[in-house]
Batch of 3 targets.
Target 1
Amino acid sequence: MRSPTLARLYLQCDHDEDIENWSDNRIWDELHKRLGGARKLEESKMLQKGITPMRSFVVEPMQYGRLFLAGDSAHIVPPTGAKGMNLAFADVMMLSRAVTTFYKSKRDDLLKNYSATCLRRVWYAQRFSWWMTQIMHRFPNESAFDRRRQHSDLDYLTSSKAAATSLAEQYVGLPLN
């Protein structure tokens, strides 16, 4: 939810589909069908629509000389895991600590370790986003085995307190070091 009256929702479709084939009515019909009444939808004007590729990307190291990368310039996660903004904030927090320490205390250890420190969190988030994408989306050439595995993962999540706790921890985010 962006606000009590504004939300961003995603529908899965083929990556090579043309957005012109997705009228507002078609999108509303699909949202109602796919959510199956799990959430009340009040139809209104769509402000934006597009085909968003579900992709991942990580730059290693997140530094080149005195150039430090943060956020989407260093890593991209699919929206399924909802980690992009949190990772960017964590990068900036770590970089600001490192720069402050460098100028206040003349120590460069945090700058030297910036990439390794951030990449540990980034790879956890990549793994989580990949896992959520695997559970929540269908893929071309998917087998009956793959669908059964998805159902098993969802069943495990809804029946295991440990799995639910792990999901909550990963979804909310890891503590900053």
Target 2
Amino acid sequence: MAAAKTPAAPADTPHGATIALLQQHSLTTLVQRELQRQIVTGVLAAGAKLNEADVATQLRVSRGPVREAFRALEQSGLVRTEKNRGVYVRQLSLAEADEIYEVRAALDGMIGRLAAQRIRPAQLQQLREIIKRMQPAGRARDVEAYFPLNLQFHDLLAEAAGNGALLAHYRRIVDELTLFRHETLARNAAHIPVSTKAHEAIVNAVAKGDAVRAERLLFEHVIDSRARLHAALREPSALSAPATRATRLRRAPA
């Protein structure tokens, strides 16, 4: 004889209210993650308007979790709310991107230094496996295959630094720059094999525990990425963000 199912607690009871709250939070998190995925992969382009009702219909949820997800995405810097106009995927100017690259260069340098001191063997093996997958993608100049591997590589390295606060700040910075980085890579596909070599050098420095070299290589890697962004923006059909003039960031001494 089948066991009887426990009836769901009514929402107007304390227990039911708790369950409803947990369900709401869970849905909000799922909606936030899906919208974040669409933004960082370019499905939702910079400047795109997000309609609360449309998103709710698309994801088959009520509008409440969508509204909360919009707030969370705004706090993380991925969307902006314009009064009386709505919610839009954030669109960075070149000047804003330059400032974020400066911060990311500093964070990446710290990540390299700490990872060289703290990385675990399993994490090092994972980095080497990602490099192996990067190599054929690089030879093929396959941006769509290479880009997620690049994100995975740097996120794993940030985890290997063993500092939760650093990881959280790093991930926010990465999310803000992702659309710029994807477009930069797409317009500099010939550079992908060079980028792969740079990743290999970083892993070698981390594996040897050479904190000074790992810090320098990662800082320069970010600065090189920023320089490629500027080169891409000089093309007539470059990024959609306005090409405002920005101060050059000096390369750190070797």
Target 3
Amino acid sequence: MTDFELIREILAGNVSLFRQLLERHQTQVFRTCLGFVHRKEDADDLTQEVFIQAYQSLHSFKGDAEFSTWLYRIAVNRSLNHVRDQQKRSIFDRLESFFVGEKSDRSLPVPSTDPNPEQQLLLNEEQQMITKLLNKLPEKQRVAFVLSKYDDMSQREIAAVLQTTEGAVEALLQRAKKTLRKELSAIYGKK
């Protein structure tokens, strides 16, 4: 069955078919969320939230675009809201630790099972740096870049998710790459 046929059946009362939609799109939604939040646990939670919202809002799906496009919009919006909430929490946590004088348990490094701690430290630092650089990008550039690099979406698919033109997506990707290259060369040029 196609997504449209499944949706029609689900809306007609055969809600058990929603599981097929979930299984069909779960991996892509997870990867989209992971591209924004960079933590498996958060991406798992967000994926679940995306499908709950999709189920609750399925009646509002008009069929003007592919179901996957509609679902990606939900995933992107949920992920961006999560990132914003985390940034707000992080600011409050830092303020609290400043006034209380102690650090939160969340800031403690997790012990590595890697036999080479130095390599693990370097990998962790590099991942944190990339995450910071991605989060510094303007929102539309970050969304386009994540969908392109993490989800392997075409510019046409990204344009549908962002509700813009392919040319605009290409421009967003070029600006994102230029900014990231500039930031990376500044960082590695100093070392």
